[in-house]
Amino acid sequence: xxxxxxxxxxxxxxxxxxxxxxxxxxxxxxxxxxxxxxxxxxxxxxxxxxxxxxxxxxxxxxxxxxxxxxxxxxxxxxxxxxxxxxxxxxxxxxxx
Amino acid sequence: xxxxxxxxxxxxxxxxxxxxxxxxxxxxxxxxxxxxxxxxxxxxxxxxxxxxxxxxxxxxxxxxxxxxxxxxxxxxxxxxxxxxxxxxxxxxxxxxxxxxxxxxxxxxxxxxxxxxxxxxxxxxxxxxxxxxxxxxxxxxxxxxxxxxxxxxxxxxxxxxxxxxxxxxxxxxxxxxxxxxxxxxxxxxxxxxxxxxxxxxxxxxxxxxxxxxxxxxxxxxxxxxxxxxxxxxxxxxxxxxxxxxxxxxxxxx
Amino acid sequence: xxxxxxxxxxxxxxxxxxxxxxxxxxxxxxxxxxxxxxxxxxxxxxxxxxxxxxxxxxxxxxxxxxxxxxxxxxxxxxxxxxxxxxxxxxxxxxxxxxxxxxxxxxxxxxxxxxxxxxxxxxxxxxxxxxxxxxxxxxxxxxxxxxxxxxxxxxxxxxxxxxxxxxxxxxxxxxxxxxxxxxxxxxxxxxxxxxxxxxxxxxxxxxxxxxxxxxxxxxxxxxxxxxxxxxxxxxxxxxxxxxxxxxxxxxxxxxxxxxxxxxxxxxxxxxxxxxxxxxxxxxxxxxxxxxxxxxxxxxxxxxxxxxxxxxxxxx
Lengths: 96, 252, 314
Ligand SMILES: [Fe+2]
Ligand SMILES: [Fe+2]
Ligand SMILES: [Fe+2]
Known about the structure:
The structure holds 3 protein chains of 3 kinds.
Chain A: E1 8-15, E2 22-30, H1 33-44, E3 52-57, H2 69-73
Antiparallel strand pairs in A: 1-2, 1-3
Chain B: H1 3-26, H2 35-63, H3 69-74, H4 85-88, H5 94-115, H6 121-149, H7 153-167, H8 178-185, H9 196-209, H10 232-240, H11 242-246
Helix pairs in contact in B: 1-2, 1-8, 2-6, 5-6, 5-7, 5-9, 6-7
Chain C: H1 7-15, H2 28-47, H3 49-53, H4 62-87, H5 93-101, H6 118-139, H7 145-173, H8 177-196, H9 208-213, H10 221-238, E1 249-251, E2 256-258, H11 264-274, H12 278-291, H13 293-313
Antiparallel strand pairs in C: 1-2
Bound molecules: fe (ii) ion (FE2) (3 copies).
């Protein structure tokens, strides 16, 4: 018996309004990009959720390793000078 | 014949095409080859029933007897339905569905592009909404025709069979009778005869790319404009009209 | 320094209210529980398309037909979201379908009951989706991220399902004698099975403990069932439906309704495969899955062919 195929896994990103970021909505199965696009449209924009769609083969997405979280994300915690509230402005300064 | 009567008939024909195709497609719900495709075909079915509702509502208005679109959809006798024979044919395999979708959506795309220019404002408005939907149906049908035609030996065979089996019902799409001609003169109806060559070359283009061939010329079945159907419509109606007929006083 | 791959660390993350993502460390039991629960949930959505699908072609108005189609389509979508969530744990949809078809995985027993008259479509939306929603709202806060995100999307879409069902029941109760009889008949047949949807009593539910500790389940079977009972009985009474239970009453002190005991024998019989439609539902699923095999193969073959052509022309 041939093993069943359910086609390839794609990840779907939808932009809900022009100008806004594309946000991950979910996945679809499809054998080619046209099918992935149509399936994404049929499944994730049924209620007017989108104005634009990205589909990406799931195999092309890499995720960071949670074991590296310390190394990746902790070092930015103490770089408070990257935030505007770090700086002291003279009283009366406007539009800055 | 008044323009109103003729337009009523015209709206009924278009409405019935949408209604009966919506019926056939909704029979496929939970029967798709993969979940995604199940939902895709349901979307097409929903477009169809929505279109039927708009057209039959307009027909009810033109009729002027206080009927609703549901009265029109559910309470007529078989002979008064005027959908194309192509549409009422029972579902076969997925290739059969795609063949029907291909023949029809290419036709509908050409048809509604013309109807959008109709002097009848309601029909023109329905047409311009429909074109957007049909464009998508057509893309979906073409893409699947390519996949099945140029997929495996089996899918190629099935796709060609679907195309062959349904071909004899495609002639009807282009027929013009006295109602069509009457409304054409008033710039309300579409000259379907003039769409035939374009349709054929469009279909041929897709089939060639899909390594399939246009079925050979054959005798074209006809009858729906006179209300003469295949045996299939009666069964569709007995199912569709069941509750309306069994409980005539009920509101749903 | 703590060990990120320890069950204690995992449990402290859970206790902190953190979400677990696919690549994060998780105990094997957690992973297994998730796969079982999510896939069962996914299969339920997909099998649930069948009883309602039984009425699409007979829906009594164009409006009703569109609502029903859109609703069933949503359920298919829910199955799809949940299959994707399980796939994040490394189990493919093909495997999940095989587990369903070989009986290794279960689906909600409620869908092994038949939809016999049009009011059943009302009862399914109102009672079955109603019960499901109580459960699903709670699951939006489940600890596994992909599951939680799927549930948020599902709950958004579910919001019309129960209302459309209740609308059908209301219309029929305000309709002819025949319609009222159909509505009550549907109520009689769906009431008890919908209460069984929440699963056995907490005292008889062996896995509940871990699932609550891991915050996969946020509330217990009995808590959720009581919520459903308390909000549904007044809705039934409002439109004149009789609760098919002579002993139900409102406990003035607690504000909760009490009912006759649930027939767990029936529950276990249906779960173990002897409900009215178990065989029919599975046969249907297998039949159309098999009939679709050549289509999926064709799509794969076409993909490979076009990829080759692109290589040649590149
Ligand atoms: Fe559901
Ligand atoms: Fe659902
Ligand atoms: Fe639902």
